[in-house]
Write a structure and sequence with these properties.
Chain lengths: 109, 113
């Protein structure tokens, strides 16, 4: 079983919908990252979380350390949000990074 | 611009051929990494380098070698390419300070036929 599990694997939404992508992990962590990968493009960091909630524009990331769970929300989704979203955790044991398989989001106009 | 530069962007190799993927950073970070990304799987660590002159194996090192001759550059070599090495490869560096944030290169799409 992967140490970092994301759901759903694929998500299709209509423009304007509220999106939620979930991430569960099974190891102790010091931080969790949400990354974005556009088709044919590189990977960029969206958020780094160690507790609570962060907001950047239409993106909101939350983490519940006790439940070992994080969510990425996108409000008022837009076709340009179409990308793969990757959850990654920093192990508190050795600072290694572990990645989820990603959630492919498609937002249709 | 500050970041991680990776070359080439695309490459097709025949089985048994060799090649080197180049990666350079201008962010002065000590840690650099090579990952491969395959469909349905998370990024998997091939090799990493905690500092100039040091390298360590990651999760999937077989079939690869790396070189970290200076702080700026970290190269990945395939000595005898195999179809199983068809993948997208990412180089990254990492801020080992407070954020532990990664900066990724733009990726190399490698096909071995």
């Amino acid at each position: 079983k992967n140490e970092v599990e994301q759901s759903p694997q694929n998500l299709t939404a209509q423009e304007g919908e509220f999106i939620t992508i979930n991430c569960s992990y099974s190891v102790g962590i010091s931080a969790l990252h949400w990354l974005q990968q556009h088709p044919g493009g590189g990977i960029v960091s969206l958020f780094m979380l160690s507790s609570g909630k962060k907001k950047h524009g239409r993106l909101i990331a939350t983490i519940n350390i006790q439940e070992k769970h994080s969510s990425l929300h996108i409000t008022a989704s837009h076709p340009r949000d179409s990308a793969v979203y990757i959850c990654a955790v920093v192990s508190s044991r050795n600072n290694d990074m572990r990645f989820g398989a990603g959630t492919r989001l498609t937002v249709k106009p | 611009n500050a970041g991680v530069t990776q070359t080439p962007k695309f490459q097709v190799l025949k089985t048994g051929q060799s090649m080197t993927l180049q990666c350079a950073q201008d962010m002065n970070h000590n840690s650099m990494y090579w990952y491969r990304q395959d469909p349905g799987m998370g990024l998997r660590l091939i090799y990493y380098s905690a500092s100039e002159g040091t390298t360590d194996k990651g999760e999937v090192p077989n079939g690869y070698n790396v070189s970290r001759l200076n702080k700026r550059e970290f190269s990945l070599r395939l000595e005898s390419a195999a179809p199983s090495q068809t993948s997208v490869y990412f180089c990254a560096n990492r801020d080992r300070g407070r954020s532990y944030g990664y900066t990724f290169g733009s990726g190399t799409r490698l096909t071995v036929v």
